[in-house]
Amino acid sequence: MADRDGKKKIRSVDPAAQQMAEHSAEKGYSLAWDRYEAVQPQCEFGTLGLCCKNCLLGPCRIDPFGEGAECGVCGATVDVIAARNLARHAAVGTAAHSDHGRDVVHTLRLAGRGEAEGYEVKNEKKLLKLAEEFGLKTDGKDPALLAQEVAEVASADFGRQEGRLRFVGRAPKPLQKKWEDAGVTPSGVDAEVVRALHATHMGVDSDPKHILKTAIKTSLADGWGGSMYATDLSDVLFGAPEPVRATANLGVIRPEAVNIIVHGHEPTLSEMIVAAAQSPDMKKKAEEAGAEDIQIAGICCTANEILMRHGIPIAGNFLQQELAVATGAVDAMVVDVQCVFPNISQYASCMSTRFISTSPKAHFEGLEHVQFDESRGLATAKDIVGRAIEAFGERGDSETVVPKENEQLVAGYTVESIFSTLGGRYRPLFRPLNKAIMDGRIRGVAGVVGCNTVKMTHDEGHLKMVRELIRNDVLVVQTGCSAIACGKAGLMKPEAAEVYAGEGLREVCRAVGIAPVLHVGSCVDNTRILLACVEMVKEGGLGDDISDLPVAGAAPEWMSEKAIAIALYVAASGIYTCLGDSFPIMGAPKVREYLLEGMEEDFGGKLAFERDPVRGAALMIEHINAKRDALGLDDMKHDPVAPVELDKVGEKVNA
Ligand code: NFS
């Protein structure tokens, strides 16, 4: 259990996280920060990518300084080893996002057949648009039937054996050609994942650069396949998000209410929990148990899904999952898949909190399992909410400690809603954004996304980078735990423009009433950022391909295999992408050279590794400026404004 040697501070810039860490230390709860200390020193061979256990001739590890073996027992060099490891990470990341996408497709099919209790097509307009894109006959067709047909076409794309993925056709033509020339145009999502696993088996692909192309191809099947289906079909089923006000941080937990935390990723579950909690019978039960209300709050990307569509509050990001439970006021922690700490059940024996796993894919030792089944989605969700109400009854007078931090934010931006927010209801165009970039009020656009990691100070990378970007007039769009970090710090309120944004960006934010930092959803919704770039190209005046745009991407605190797939598909879509931690490839010179330099020639985008978030932002700005120069755009109208100290974030917006 927790042993922070009397130094109760954790590495986090979030005061709510800090308070709960102190409380956890007093209670003896172990946190990820404690476990990180306990596993030191971490394996340097693994960090550098020089450890191979792909076959049982090994494990082999290669010393980067030439002491000992130069290659593995089979003859694999450092570059082959590191490239294969990276390709496997990308395949797992792609599989995770895409399996989430597949579940949404499955639910859409069941909903169309009338076999998914509680689900229906909420966005017929988008269903129709997709059906037309897929070449389906739409005239006078019943939306339920159309939903089934769209789901069939999508399923076929997952299992496609030949030809290219459908959404590849959404990319600008020059980018499609680059992918063709480089041999990375993805085919079926499943096939690409399987091929990456085959290619990295012992004694198959042994050309480092070719292995990296396999990693890129697989990742493109995520970005322009599995993830894009997850986003588009979630919008069809659950409705397209619209700008919505909400709140974020541990202070959203209310001791007097039945608190249910939904943690994980798939909206199929969380949407039903929200519906169940809002149903009159459940509300009545909660009142009978003496609760004021039922409070749903999210952690990680499932939080982003229900925030975007319903304005449901966010309890915190990845590193706050244990801290939420430590409040003692959570009556049910409901998890599905991805980013859930395996030992989250450590609390089960000492609290009334019910820990409930729900996915057939993910059971957790020590957690009660209520299998979620879309065919009886609402009934399962009511069962879960009922258990939370019971737990509230058992909570009695036991101690609860809930931080007060609870910040306002606006979320719910999509390609469609950016259109209408910037262009107005009657002129839904990307023209105003392109024009603001062309005339030098907005320097460019940056997507800042990704996780938290205990290897860095929690949230600090996100906040420092984003503030540096907006003070230099770069409009920021965000997803994932990065979006949650900036939401908690007050950067997603329109007022934030007055404090942090450069003068040009501030003028634009004032004119259209937006914050300088826009929340565009969960990690699968990074596809919204790709498609926003496509729209900027289509709108004209900023080049012919995504790689011509003055845009950049970043994941300052990334840690998951999903982030590896994202970084690769974003860079291979032509976007300069700056990562906080490096990929585990630094011991492999050829791999390093290709990812940090060579791939730009093939795709127009490449990666950079920079731990210092302010320097990372400077690299992104330098890239954006170079793109502006290449396009011959006007000089920026204003100089950047002075930076604001990190400890003033939030404080200043609220002043
Ligand atoms: Ni993305 Fe979302 Fe957060 Fe990282 Fe995990 S929740 S899918 S992987 S930790 S951003």
Structure description:
- The chain is 48% helix and 10% strand.
- With 655 residues, it is of the alpha/beta class.
- The mean pLDDT is 94.
- The structure holds FE(4)-NI(1)-S(5) cluster.
- FE(4)-NI(1)-S(5) cluster binds next to helix 12, helix 18 and helix 22.
Quick structural overview:
The chain is α/β, with parallel strands linked by helices.
Which term fits the overall shape?
A: globular
| Average residue-wise pLDDT | 94
Biggest beta-sheet profile: 6 strands, parallel
Q: What name does the CATH topology of the largest domain carry?
A: Rossmann fold
Strand content: 5-15%
> Helical region count?
25
Compute the number of structural domains.
Answer: 3
* Strand segment tally: 16
pLDDT < 50 runs, ≥5 residues: none
Q: Give the fraction of residues assigned to helices.
A: 40-55%
Please name the CATH architecture of the largest domain.
3-Layer(aba) Sandwich
